[in-house]
Amino acid sequence: MILIGICDDEKLHRQTITQLCEQFFEEFEQEHTYIEFASGEEVLAYQGDQLHLLFLDIEMGDVSGLDVLDSLRESDKIWRIAFASSHGEQRLDTIDMKTLAFLDKPLSYEGVKKCLEIAIAENARNISATFTLLDGKKDFKLSEIVYIRAEKHYMSVCAKQCDFMGYDSMKQVEEQLQGTTMIRIHKSYLANMQYIKKLTAEEVLMSNGKRLPIGRKYKSVVKEAFYQFVRSVTIGRNGAK
Questions:
Q1: Are 59 and 90 in contact (CB under 8 A)?
Q2: Own/partner pairs for 174-177, CB < 8 Å, 24+ apart?
Q3: What backbone phi and psi angles, to 5 degrees, belong to 215?
């Protein structure tokens, strides 16, 4: 099930986006549903299931689309955002891991189609990892995990909502998450490339402000993997306009 949010203060624009989405789903069968918002305030107050894609107008009342992005940047309430605006000069202000595209109004079918394709594909890659906790095993989505640190007899997992201790080995977790955005950067650290804010020769700066060391033997691998990740996200998303 794909949950699509549509936020615009004009009902006609919300209807247009719904029609374009329906055109896509006529061609590519996928179970889906919509939730409409008439303001940024309504998006911020939303407490339902995670929105896989939110089409978000920028110019709205007291809470703009950019305000919504600032407030929900670290939240899992919204998986990905496609901004819609007739003011192209705001394009750079929308750049973020959550942002799939900046769509010029009036929206085109090709732009909406590309956003839906990317959101569905990226969500499919958001696999779960199973951790052994004191009270049993529990699954966590890849997007919830910022980094993992190996301790003596356990591992410390820094997640977006709360930190916790796991009793699996780093090797076990690394094998589970092989081929994902989680990468070994040090003998004691796994880091999620989705949350790497800056990469230097000696360390990575995570989105939560934490600085993690890069082990000498991992430097070239980390650098190449991270830039491949950035390129894949950039190139994959640039087609949505």
A1: no
A2: 176/129, 176/130, 177/127, 177/129, 177/142
A3: -70, 150
Question: pLDDT digit string (tens) for 180-201?
Answer: 999 999 999 999 999 999 999 9
* Cα dihedral 222, 173, 237, 86 in deg (nearest 10): -110
Supply φ then ψ for residue 82, to 5 degrees.
Answer: -115, 110
Q: How far is CA 213 from each of CA 60, 186, 190, rounded to the nearest angstrom? A: 42, 7, 10
pTM of the model: 0.78
CA distance 93 to 108: 21
Q: Which of 79, 70, 45, 55 is nearest to 5 (CA)?
A: 55
Average pLDDT, the chain: 92
The list of the chain residues with pLDDT below 50 reads: none
If you ran DSSP here, which 8-state letter would residue 78 be given? B
Q: 């079918």: which residue's tokens?
A: 109
Residue 133, H or E segment: strand 128-133
For residue 134, give both structure tokens. Answer: 């004191």
Domains of the chain and CATH, by start? 2-124 (3.40.50.2300), 128-226 (2.40.50.1020)
Tokens for 96, please give them: 């973020």
Angstrom distance (rounded) from CA 72 to CA 42:
13
